[in-house]
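[step 3/7] fold_predict: job queued, chain A
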Amino acid sequence: MLTSHARFADWLERIAGDRLLEYEEVIAYHLEQAHHYRSELGLTDELTELLGSRAATHLRAAGSRAWARHDAPAADNLISRAVDLLGDSRERWKLMLLLSDIAFAKMDFPRTRGLLADASQAADRAGDELVRAHAEMLAAQVALHTDPKVDEERALKLSAITEALAIESSDLRARVDALQVRALVSLNRCRFGDMLAALEEALPLLQGQDPESQLLRRDVQDGICAAVSFGPTSASAAIARIDQMASAETGLPLGKYLSAPWLLAMQGEFDEARRLIKAGIEYVDERGLVSRRGDFAVTKAGVELFAGDLEAAQNAYAEAIAIWEALGATSYLSTLAALRAIVLYQLGRTEEMGEAIRLARENGSPTDIATQAAWRIAAAQRAADQGRLDEAEQLIGEAIALVEPTDFLELRSRVFAAHAHIEARAGRVAGWHSGLGRALAEHERKGNLVDAKRIRDLISSQPPAAVA
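[step 4/7] structure written:
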């Protein structure tokens, strides 16, 4: 027996035609209600199951479209309802993985871990190797953001296993997620060329216009924005790449809002950079992605550093640290604490540096290159200024060893500039000139016009006085 809800859903589905997408949530609601009423009556037959499955299909499609446009509250609501309608099945487990993606983007790490654990255990009981490997890999991805003792090699191993199983099963999402985990490990290691290569391997797989392809393409393109921004791609070429992707109307705005301001600011276009940040904050607030405010605080800090407003930069870093410390995102806050320590040093607030360095050291993974190099930059310069040259030289030597295998040009330039400062404090003027020359070469390679000029001005000035 069909309820009035089910009959209405059937009628609307028949007459909707090409406008089905406009009515999909309404159809899903009525099928959901029909399933609910039959379940309450204890009717657990094939018809009840079919109504639930049909409702879940519509909810998943509507939720995927919502997520592709970054509408987190709507996507969470729709996908959660779909999960609740399904029995213990592969379809349900895969929806739980999609729901974990939404929770992860909202930086709700406990919920993300719970969803992944439930999916992994259910898949393990059913002998579903792909879903289990996929869930375990995504859990390792969460650990890369939250656990200072994370094992990157395990994450890479799970990525390889998941990718192989996904290719065998033609599972698009699992394959792309595996490539994104590989890219994330490369990001941690500050090897942005490798990060870009992994993401560009994923991008051609995502040419479809279905919701799943669109939302995966959005995530991959956002990652490409980060890779070209921080890696060896020149600033002008990176801006062109970001603009080209944004003009393709593929739901990219976050990548543009987060990456382009940094690149524009290093070319001296501060007003446009700030305008984009403001627009980006409005974008995430409208879509319930409030946790992404931390990302924009970081972008703002970078822009203000280029603009020479050190106080505004350190305040932005402090804001981002507070957001991510509350969320338990250790990989984020450790790097930002280290970067804030550098700015505090530049401001002459060396006493406050100690707390920032402590936060970086306690929360940073040993394999997190940006964190480990940045706190050493600050600590080494402070030690040199205080006459502890042996300590300073050891710290800066460790920082140089950390960045040499990387292609994070701006981090490399900071290390080389700090080395120059320590050389000057040791009375080695030739070493000061050499260090600044290396820093300048990195800025020029990146197309960082603002800092390249600053280094040239330093080279033409007198070095810091040697310490006694």
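[step 5/7] annotate
The chain is about 80% helix and 0% strand.
The radius of gyration is 25 Å.
exit 0
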